[in-house]
Amino acid sequence: MRAALYNGKKSIEMTELPTPEAGENDIVVKNIYASICGTDVAVYEHGPGTGHRITVGSEFGHEMVSEVFQVGKNVKNIKVGDRVYPYPRLAKGDLKRAGTTGGFSEYILIPNAELGKGVYAVPDEIPSKEASLIEPFTVGCRAARRSFPHQGENAIVFGAGTIGIAAAIALKYFGCHKVMICDHSDFRLNKAKELGFEICNNGKEDIKAKAQKIFGGAISALGETCDVDIYIDAAGADGIIETYQSMGKVNSRMVVVAVKAGLRPIDVLAMTYGQHAIIGSGGYFPEDVRDVMAIMQSRKWDIESIITDVYPWEQLPQAIEKASRVEEALNVVIKY
């Protein structure tokens, strides 16, 4: 089978490996599309230790939609030809492989396969290309859920990448009234606008002034501010937590989902007086998979429109490089 091995910074070996064979309790799936994650870009651009735990010399990729190719005799409710979403936390039977499931290889062995655990059936209403975004959308959905959204609340999402847009869509799905997405990339912000969101280029615009115009006014511990209940950091850039603490209204909350190594400053006194909450969100759970599939089945948002580029497997290195150019691309996928 065709396989991509991560060999360190700016180095991917496009090679062939033996095609796996299913044991009695296993299945083998053939990938249809694989999406490129921001952590794949990070580890390619900067080397090991900057994204998921990707071992040099190993297969990688974890956002994919697949077709069942082979089924072990003891496996129930799964048949050859079914479209499935391999659930990265459980697909390989090893949580450490969640970021290295094998999406950039042609076939994946899924041991001890169970429907609704290691793999999920993909409903017919979801096109395969869009289904390759199920994994990052579950990350965004989890972040939205962790904000404990209530009907009619307002929200700001920092980051117009796949996870930021996924979080914004999930917030609307959970009942939020208005959602604004902030980013420094006009290219990505225009994609968010086409999906129906308010936008702000916070590298050029005064975010607080624009938020007050869009959401109206409210009171913070520091005086007048915008009427925003929820903030989500899906960008990981310096200064976002400080921005929230400077403008968050009383009883607002921030969810941090962006992966950023190292310590980040928090003014605990300001958090106390402002009645603020800062909440972490990582990964996803089965309820997020169910909600994302329901969102995609609803056809309310043109989710596939955020896929800006499709590359053949043979051009994986070029595809990852394209995914790093935020003024030219949003989500980039590989087609087998």
Key traits:
globular, alpha/beta, six-stranded parallel β-sheet, 336 residues
Query: Helical percent range?
Result: 25-40%
Could you report the average pLDDT, rounded to the nearest whole number?
96
Helix count from the secondary structure assignment: 11
The SS-based structural class is: alpha/beta
User: If you compute it from the alpha carbons, what radius of gyration comes out, rounded to the nearest whole angstrom?
Assistant: 20 Å
Largest sheet: 7 strands, mixed
Summarize the structure in short.
The chain contains eleven helices and 18 strands. The protein is of the alpha/beta class and 336 residues long.
Layout of helices and strands, plus pairs?
Blueprint: E1 2-6, E2 12-16, E3 27-35, H1 38-46, E4 58-59, E5 63-71, E6 83-86, H2 88-91, E7 107-110, E8 119-121, H3 128-131, H4 134-146, E9 154-158, H5 162-173, E10 178-183, H6 186-194, E11 198-201, H7 207-215, E12 217-220, E13 223-226, E14 230-233, H8 240-247, E15 253-256, H9 268-273, E16 277-280, H10 286-298, E17 307-312, H11 316-323, E18 331-335
Parallel strand pairs: 9-10, 9-14, 10-11, 14-15, 15-16, 17-18
Antiparallel strand pairs: 1-2, 1-4, 3-5, 3-7, 3-18, 5-6, 6-8, 12-13
Helix pairs in contact: 4-5, 4-10
Describe the structure.
By secondary structure, the chain is of the alpha/beta class. It is 28% helix and 26% strand. It contains 11 helices and 18 strands. The chain has helices spanning 38-46, 88-91, 128-131, 134-146, 162-173, 186-194, 207-215, 240-247, 268-273, 286-298, 316-323, and strands at residues 2-6, 12-16, 27-35, 58-59, 63-71, 83-86, 107-110, 119-121, 154-158, 178-183, 198-201, 217-220, 223-226, 230-233, 253-256, 277-280, 307-312, 331-335. Strands 3, 5, 6, 7, 8, 17 and 18 form a 7-stranded mixed β-sheet that branches. It has a 6-stranded parallel β-sheet with strand order 11-10-9-14-15-16, with helices on both faces. Helix 5 links the parallel strand 9 and strand 10. The longest helix has 13 residues, at 134-146. The chain is globular. It starts with a strand and ends with a strand. The model has no long low-confidence stretch (mean pLDDT 96).
